[in-house]
Specification:
two-stranded antiparallel sheet; 33% strand; binds zinc ion; alpha/beta; 2 domains; 181 residues; elongated
């Protein structure tokens, strides 16, 4: 099986085939997206299968990789495994035999094959990845987080703030006790 690096496939030959024509690729997709949080990891790898349908090309992709996000409590990097299962039908915008533009009923521009017969899966991969990024990642379940006052990482050890009271009523009492001494 061919290994494809990148997100673009020229599907001109596949589009010339009758319904049922197939292609399979091993894929390696570099993490090169608009969102910075998606870009700190190794490439996604997996397989892509394409099937010629009467409307276009049905794409099935199974991709694995990781995304690196920050722990929502202590802000250290957390590497989260991601597993993408993508099934989408792409439609050509140009008739591959006649070279004429065709009317498409697909409203999602991410699912259109361009006039050079390039099917680009970057956008569907990006969308699938964003759904996989955990919103509240934790480096570990019992992460103690950062002190809200001094910012110390409480996983490393307690800070001085946690031992002092900040309630002014206690301060007043402490002053009274001092006077009484
Ligand atoms: Zn943490
Ligand atoms: Zn503190």
């Amino acid at each position: 099986m061919k290994t494809s690096h990148g997100t673009e496939f020229n599907v001109a030959q596949l589009l010339k085939e009758p319904v049922g024509g197939r292609r399979s690729f091993e894929m390696e997709i570099p993490m090169d997206f608009e969102e910075e949080e998606l870009n700190q990891s190794d490439p996604l790898t997996g397989t892509v299968n394409m099937l010629r349908t009467n409307r276009g090309v049905l794409l099935e992709a199974a991709l694995d990789g990781t995304v690196t996000v920050q722990c929502s409590r202590c802000l250290t990097d957390v590497v989260c495994p991601v597993s993408l299962e993508i099934v989408e039908e792409f439609q050509p915008t140009v008739d591959v035999v006649r070279g004429t533009f065709v009317a498409v009923d697909e409203e999602d521009a991410a699912l259109l094959i361009n006039e050079h017969h390039i099917l680009d899966i970057a956008e569907v991969v990006r969308q699938a990845l964003l759904l996989e990024v955990p919103l509240q990642a934790l480096c570990r379940e019992e992460c103690a987080g950062l002190c809200p006052i001094c910012g110390q990482d409480l996983n490393v050890g307690p800070c001085d703030c946690s031992r002092e009271t900040t309630d002014p009523r206690w301060d007043a009492l402490a002053a009274l006790l001092k006077e009484a001494e």
